[in-house]
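Following up on my earlier thread - several people asked me to post the actual chain instead of describing it. Fair enough. Here it is, all 358 residues.
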Amino acid sequence: MAGFYIISGDDDFARKRRARELCAELSGSSEPESDEAVEIIPGDDPALKADELASLFVEALRTPPFLCDHKIIWMRHHPDLDKFAAEKQSPEYSELFALLTTPLPDGIQVIIDGPGLDRRRSKVKELKNAGAEMELLNAAKSSDKAFAEIRRELLANFSRTTRKRIAPDAMQYLSEVIGGDSGTLANELEKLNCYTGNATEITLADCLAIISRTQEALTWEFTSAVVESNRTKALLTLAKLLSQRDNGMEIRMLAGLSNEYQKLIQTRLAMKQLNITRANPNSFSALPQEVKERFPDNPLLKMHPYRAFKTCEAASRFSGNALAVKLTAIRDASRALVSGGGDSRILLEQLVCKLTVR
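Reply from S.P.:
Thanks for posting it. Predicted structure:
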């Protein structure tokens, strides 16, 4: 088994959890913090300065195992791993780096976790050449192309583990309103698991009842209410969002609305390509394989069949001309907001009234 591990990345929850799991795996103890074979350098202790942490690490590396035949040294949650790879290092880190880039003594394994590791640095490459196994755990970004797919896979894993089916609309809601932080995701899913008890399915109603009212969740509810022409709900949710006083939120809300209506236009085009005029729950599961092969990039074919049906159902409520009118209204409201041509709350309320006309 390898003896040197470095775990970094900006996803604090995932990184810390992985480091503890690895320490437990190497020590064979479910409580590695209390295992006599584990020596912890508390990088998360604010009372210890960076150079003090390095000195403690050097001392631990120079001390052979005591009362057992092996020792695991865990630099727990170091505040900045860039200290290990900086070109100009303090004497303490220079000495530590020299020890880490030579073969570790027999019976000693090392775990280091913390943010700030830049794999492009030459010293990081030296650590890797010395045998360090590196893991980089970064939070998923909503701008990432694979963000939605990563989120869906995590939710699918949760579903398999708990043996609870997540309804397609609930899956879509969760993938959109829970951000990239894995700690938040784990917490919200645990709440859902407890809330639903012995139920075999998690529904959208369950999610709306228990998921924290984050800005993402409220924005999703606002956009959905507008597209569904639910004026009362849209105005109430708008009031909640505006009370958060987040700079730039109004523009992001308009961008979200614009994106939603553009998706409906794309859906109508995708339906036309597949020769679907009025979708039903079986429209996509019953499509001939020849059609699927002819249009591999059709967005509807990449969705869960039920989700594709609901998307088509929403798009069918609007004509192409109606969608163009709505996008024009959003564009005009955006210009007014940017130019400061009126009170933002009044502009948004007026826009909601225009967009929710049945």
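The beta strands are 4-8, 38-42, 71-76, 108-113, 133-136, 165-166, 201-202. That should answer part of your original question.
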